[in-house]
Amino acid sequence: MQHFISSPFYFPSSLKQLILGFRQPILFLFCLSLFTYTNQTVLADNTLSTNSNPHWNSNYCQTCHASTPTKAKLSLIHTNVSTLCITCHQQNITEKHIHPIGMKPGSNMLSRMSVAFRDSLDAQGQLACATCHDIPMQCLSSRKNEQELNSKFLRGGPYYARSGICFSCHDESKYQRLNPHDQIDENGTINRASCKLCHRDEPNLGEKSTIDKLYFSIENDLSTLCTRCHPWKPHPGASFSFNKKRQANHLRVPPSAMLQRMQVQQNKMGIILPLDPTNGKIFCGTCHNPHEKGILKHAADKGADSKYRLRHTKICINCHDK
Ligand code: HEC
Ligand code: HEC
Ligand code: HEC
Ligand code: HEC
Ligand code: HEC
Ligand code: HEC
Ligand code: HEC
Ligand code: HEC
After folding, report:
1. Residue 177 Cα to ligand 4 middle (Å)
2. Which atom of ligand 3 approaches the CA of 9 most closely?
3. Tens of pLDDT along 143-191?
4. Closest Cα to residue 18, out of 227, 232, 175?
5. Percent of the residues in the chain that have a pLDDT greater than 90, as a whole number
6. Residue 155: CB within 6 Å of ligand 2?
7. Which of 26, 59, 217, 320 lies 20 to 30 Å from 290 when distance is taken between CA atoms?
8. Half-sphere CA count of 232, side-chain side, radius 13 A
9. CA 197 from centroid of its chain's CA atoms
10. pLDDT tens digits along 81-136
C-alpha cells in the first residue's frame, strides 16, 4: 500500500499522457485512507522511536522544536532546515529521492515560480527541502485537514499527477527537459544539472573510467537510481518464463561462466556491460546506457540514444550463448 504512494513518478512521454497521468484516482484515494489509518496508530503511541513518523502529530513537536514554537521564535533544533530533515531522512533521500537540492533556479525559472515557491528558497537562493515541502502544514492544527489529500505536505498541493509539482518551476511546454537522459542542449552545451540526478560529483569527462571509480547519488543497489522514475517489472525475457515462480529476474550475480563470456564479448563488440560494484549484480545500467550520445567516449558511449538505450542491438548474446 505504502509502496503505491511512494512508488516512482509517472513520467509523461507526451503531453497527452501527462494529462492522462491522473490515473486510478479511486485506488489512490483508497490507499491514502489506509495510510491515514497507519498514522492514527502512531498518534496513539506516545513513546518516540526513530521509526515513529513525527509529522502531523501533536505528540512529536519536540523532535524539531526545542521548546514551544511561535511564528516569531521557532526554536528549531537545527537552524538550517534541510539539515534538520536530513538527520532523519538521509537513508530515504540518498537512496530514493527524486530531486537534488542546492541548485539555484535561473531567471526564467524564477519568473515562472509563484511567490510561495520563490520565498521558500534558502538564504543563498537555492532549492531546499522546504521549497517543495510546505513544512508548517504538518505543524499547525488549523491545517490538519490538508493531510488526507496531501500527506507529503507538498507546496501548492495536492497534485493529481505526480509530475504536477515539477511544473511549478520547470517549463511545461518543454516537459521533455525533465528527461534526465537529455543531457546536451540545443547549443551543444552539456547540461551539468542533469548529471546531479545520478552522480554525486561531476565525473571527469576527459578520462576513461570504470563504474567502481564513480560516486553516485545513492549508496547501494544502483538499480534504485532508475526505479525512482521507471517502475520495475522483471524483464527482458519474462515472456519466455513458463514457471511463474521463476521469473526472468535479471538483477542478480551472473554465474562465473557467464562473467567470462561477458568479458570476451565486451572486448569483441567494443561495449561495456558494467555490474553494480556494491554487490556484483546486473543492474539497469548493465544493459541500458543512461547517457546522451556524445557525453562519454569510446565503449561507454555505445548504445547511448539507441532504441531502448540498449548497449548492443543483440544484447542477449553478450551473456547467453544461445
Ligand atoms: C519535522 C520537523 C517539525 C515538526 C515535527 C514540527 N515542526 Fe513546526 N516547524 C518546523 C520548521 C522547519 C518550521 C519553519 C518552516 C519555515 O520557516 O518554512 C516550523 C514552523 C512552525 C511554526 C511557525 C509556522 C508559521 O506560520 O510560519 C509553528 C507555530 C510550528 N512550527 C509549530 C509546531 C507544532 C505545534 C508542532 C507539533 C504539532 C510542530 N511545529 C512540529 C519543523 C517541524
Ligand atoms: C525526527 C526524525 C524526522 C525529522 C527531523 C524529519 N522527518 Fe520526515 N519522516 C520521519 C519518519 C520516521 C517518517 C515516516 C517513515 C518514513 O516513511 O520514512 C517521515 C515521513 C516523511 C514524509 C512522508 C510523509 C507521509 O506521512 O507520507 C515526508 C514528505 C517527510 N518526512 C519530509 C520531511 C521534511 C521535509 C523534513 C524536514 C523539515 C523532515 N521530514 C524531518 C522522520 C523525520
Ligand atoms: C523539487 C521538489 C522537492 C524537493 C527539493 C524535495 N522534495 Fe521530498 N518529495 C517531493 C515530491 C514531489 C515527493 C512525493 C513523491 C511521491 O508522491 O511519490 C516527495 C517525497 C518525499 C518523502 C516521502 C518519500 C516516500 O518514499 O514516501 C520524503 C521523506 C521527502 N520527500 C523528504 C525530502 C527531504 C528531506 C528533502 C530535502 C533534502 C526533500 N524531500 C526535497 C519533492 C521534493
Ligand atoms: C522549486 C523548483 C523546482 C521544482 C518544483 C522541480 N525542480 Fe527540477 N530543477 C530545479 C532547478 C533549479 C534545477 C537546476 C537546473 C535548472 O535550473 O534547470 C532542476 C533540475 C532538474 C533536472 C535536471 C536538469 C534539467 O533541467 O533537465 C531534472 C531532470 C529535473 N529538475 C526534474 C524535475 C522533476 C521530475 C520535478 C518534479 C518532481 C522537478 N524537477 C521539480 C528546480 C525545480
Ligand atoms: C540516469 C542516471 C545518470 C545520469 C543522468 C548521468 N549518468 Fe553518468 N553514469 C550513470 C551510470 C549508471 C554509470 C555507470 C555505467 C556507465 O558507465 O554507463 C555512469 C557512468 C558515467 C561515466 C563513466 C563512464 C565510463 O565507464 O567510462 C561518466 C564519465 C559519466 N557517467 C558522466 C556523466 C555526465 C557528465 C552526466 C551529465 C551530463 C551524466 N553522467 C549523467 C548514470 C547517469
Ligand atoms: C528523473 C527521472 C528518470 C530517472 C532517474 C531515469 N530515467 Fe530513464 N527516462 C526518463 C524519461 C522522462 C524518459 C523518456 C520518456 C519515456 O520515453 O518514457 C526515459 C527514458 C528511458 C529509456 C527509454 C525508454 C523507451 O521506451 O525507449 C530507458 C531504457 C531508460 N530511461 C533507462 C533508464 C535507466 C537505466 C536509468 C538509471 C540509470 C534511468 N532511466 C533513470 C526518466 C528517468
Ligand atoms: C539484461 C538486460 C536488461 C536489464 C538488466 C534491464 N533491462 Fe530494461 N530492457 C532490456 C531490453 C532488452 C528491453 C527491450 C524491451 C524488452 O525486451 O522488454 C528493455 C526495455 C526497457 C524499457 C523500455 C520499455 C518499457 O517497458 O518501457 C525501460 C524503461 C527499461 N527497460 C528500464 C529498465 C530498468 C529501470 C531496469 C533496472 C531496474 C532495466 N531496464 C534492466 C534489457 C534490460
Ligand atoms: C548482462 C547479462 C545478461 C543479458 C544481457 C541477458 N541476460 Fe538473461 N540472464 C542473465 C542471468 C545472470 C540469468 C540467470 C541465469 C543463471 O543464473 O544462470 C539470466 C536468465 C535468463 C532467463 C531464464 C530465467 C530463469 O531464471 O529461468 C531468460 C529467459 C533470459 N535470461 C532471457 C534473456 C533475454 C531474452 C535476453 C535479451 C533480451 C537476456 N536474457 C539478456 C544474464 C543476462
Report:
1. 9
2. 18
3. 999 999 999 999 999 987 777 898 899 888 776 557 889 898 888 899 8
4. 175
5. 47
6. no
7. 320
8. 15
9. 8
10. 999 998 888 755 544 566 778 889 999 999 999 999 999 999 999 999 999 999 99
Residues 147, 4 contacting (CB under 8 angstroms): no
Look-up of cell digits 543492474: 283
Residue nearest to atom 1 of ligand 5 (CA): 290
| Burial bucket for residue 67 (CB in 10 Å: 0-12, 13-18, 19+) | exposed
Q: Is the CB of 170 under 6 A from ligand 3?
A: no
Q: Do the Cβ atoms of 100 and 118 come closer than 8 Å?
A: no
CA of 69 to the centre of ligand 3 (A): 24
CB 130 within 8 A of CB 82: yes
CB 202 within 8 A of CB 257: no
Residue type, 202: E
Q: Alpha helix (H) ranges present in 163-288?
A: 192-195, 224-227, 256-269, 284-287
Report whether residue 229 contacts ligand 6, using a CB cutoff of 6 Å: yes
